[in-house]
Automatic annotation (TrEMBL):
<keyword id="KW-0820">tRNA-binding</keyword>
<dbReference type="GO" id="GO:0005737">
    <property type="term" value="C:cytoplasm"/>
</dbReference>
<dbReference type="GO" id="GO:0106026">
    <property type="term" value="F:Gly-tRNA(Ala) deacylase activity"/>
</dbReference>
<dbReference type="InterPro" id="IPR003732">
    <property type="entry name" value="Daa-tRNA_deacyls_DTD"/>
</dbReference>
<comment type="similarity">
    <text>Belongs to the DTD family.</text>
</comment>
<keyword id="KW-0378">Hydrolase</keyword>
<feature type="compositionally biased region" description="Basic and acidic residues">
    <location>
        <begin position="178"/>
        <end position="189"/>
    </location>
</feature>
<protein>
    <recommendedName>
        <fullName>D-aminoacyl-tRNA deacylase</fullName>
        <ecNumber>3.1.1.96</ecNumber>
    </recommendedName>
</protein>
<feature type="compositionally biased region" description="Basic and acidic residues">
    <location>
        <begin position="156"/>
        <end position="167"/>
    </location>
</feature>
<dbReference type="GO" id="GO:0000049">
    <property type="term" value="F:tRNA binding"/>
</dbReference>
<feature type="region of interest" description="Disordered">
    <location>
        <begin position="141"/>
        <end position="207"/>
    </location>
</feature>
<keyword id="KW-0963">Cytoplasm</keyword>
<dbReference type="InterPro" id="IPR023509">
    <property type="entry name" value="DTD-like_sf"/>
</dbReference>
<dbReference type="GO" id="GO:0051500">
    <property type="term" value="F:D-tyrosyl-tRNA(Tyr) deacylase activity"/>
</dbReference>
<keyword id="KW-0694">RNA-binding</keyword>
<dbReference type="Pfam" id="PF02580">
    <property type="entry name" value="Tyr_Deacylase"/>
</dbReference>
Amino acid sequence: MRAIIQRVTRATVTVGEEQISSVGRGLCILLGISAEDTQKDADYIVRKILNLRLFEDENGRAWSKSVMERDFEVLCVSQFTLQCILKGNKPDFHSAMPAELAQPFYNSILESMRSAYKPEHIKDGEFGAYMQVHIQNDGPVTIELTSPTGPTDPRQLSKQEKQQQRKEKTRSKGPSESSREKGAQRYRQDPNASSGAEGDVSSERET
């Protein structure tokens, strides 16, 4: 999933002659959903959009406050062209999620933003419509954000699958006889010694 995040003093969306949405100071988000995106990608993008420190604080110190901390608004616009792959000079959009799947996924992202923030502060365009987006960029400040996804190269995927299969086989076999003998011998030498298994703690670092 890709997002272009722009700090704005004003942004509006017009369809035809009708202005359907507008925000004052805050963020304008252009959001492109790929065919491989999952809820994990959506959660990452939502968290980053709402918590990026793109605004000054009350004392004028830059890069100190998020859109939520400043009580500003967010305008989100679906933008499948962010998933463009160039074939020569011709854009190809096959990596974008099909519209019939992307629309409910996009709506769920908006609902996640509204649940995490103030519903009335989250605005959007009109999915699938031909829109005119007017952005008054403040700064200018523009941040490109891509969610962490798995590899798309089939060879890399195959390599990861083989590595996973080897790990599963190793776990299913359990400890070897020699490992058990070494462990028993170490315990006989020092009954108070720990094998270290109790101290194994895996931690996941938040991105």
